[in-house]
Amino acid sequence: MEDIRRQQPEGSIPIDKVGVKNLRYPIVLLDKAHNRQHTIATISMFVDLPKEQRGTFMGRFVEILNRYHREIDVHKLGTILKEMRERLGANSAHLEMEFPYFVEKCAPVSGVRSQMDYRCWISASLSDRFVLRLGVAVPVTTLCPCSREMSGRGGHNQRAEIRAVVEFKGFVWIEDLIDLLEECGSSEVYSLLEREDEKHLTAQALDNPAFVEDVVRKVAQRLDAHPQITGYLVEVESFESIHHHEAYAYINRFRSG
C-alpha cells in the first residue's frame, strides 16, 4: 500500500513544526523534599518537515513516549528528542510539557501545613544545539505604593502572578525557583491560613508595597545573581482590585529565541 505521507506535496514549502499537541501523560520529577513527584503533564511534540514530504508520521510521536514506560524523566528529554529526529528523519525536534507541581507550605505564624500547586512547564528543543527551559508561574500579593501613600491607612492590594522562564547550567530545583519568585512580591499566597497568619501577611504587604515594575526588576536582579541561570524571561501581571484592567511588566534576557 502506498504511503500517502511520502508523496510530493502540491506546495513545495518546508514546515517549521508539525506534530501532536495536548497529549496527557504521566511524568516523574525530582522533588527536593520527597525525592520524586509524580504528576500529569500536557505534552506537545513537533519536528520540522522538509518541502519534499507531504506529511509526517503522527503515530510515531506517541510510540516514542510509550517507550519510556508511562514515565518521562526530564533528564531523558535529550534522548527523546534525538529519537524523534532519527525516527522521523527531521533536522529539529521540540517537546513541550505543562504540569502542576505541588509543594507543602507552612503558614507564617500558626505553622499550619497545606499543599500549594504551581503551574510549571518545560520546553526542550534539539537542532544544532540542545536547549532546555524551565518555566514557573507563582501567585503573590502586590500592594500599591501610591494607594498606601495617599490613604495613610492602608492600600489596595490584589493577587498577582509572576511567570519566569529560565535557561540554566547544571541543575535547578523547581522549589528554589518558586521560592525566589515568591520572595519578590509584597507577600506570599497560601492555601490555608489561620487568623494570626492573615494579620501577619496583611502587615507584611503594607510594609512591602510594590508596583509590577518593582517586582519584575527585583526578580531580574535575583536571576542575574543566580550562579546557574544563564538566561531568562520574566512577566508580572497584577489582577487589579480597583481598576478595570490588569497591570503588566516584562523583561527578556534570553540571548536568542
UniProtKB/TrEMBL annotation:
GO biological process: tetrahydrofolate biosynthetic process
Keyword Hydrolase: yes
InterPro entries: GTP_cyclohydrolase_FolE2 (IPR022838), GTP_cyclohydrolase_FolE2/MptA (IPR003801)
Any one GO MF annotation of this record: GTP cyclohydrolase I activity
Reactions catalysed, as given in the entry: GTP + H2O = 7,8-dihydroneopterin 3'-triphosphate + formate + H(+)
Entry EC number(s): 3.5.4.16
Keyword Acetylation on entry: no
Pathway: Cofactor biosynthesis; 7,8-dihydroneopterin triphosphate biosynthesis; 7,8-dihydroneopterin triphosphate from GTP: step 1/1
Sites marked May be catalytically important: 144
Database matches in Pfam families: GCHY-1 (PF02649)
Swiss-Prot/TrEMBL keywords: Hydrolase
Family annotation (HAMAP family): GTP_cyclohydrol_B
Known role: Converts GTP to 7,8-dihydroneopterin triphosphate.
Similarity-based family: Belongs to the GTP cyclohydrolase IV family.
Name of the molecule in the record: GTP cyclohydrolase FolE2
UniProt source species: candidate division WOR-3 bacterium
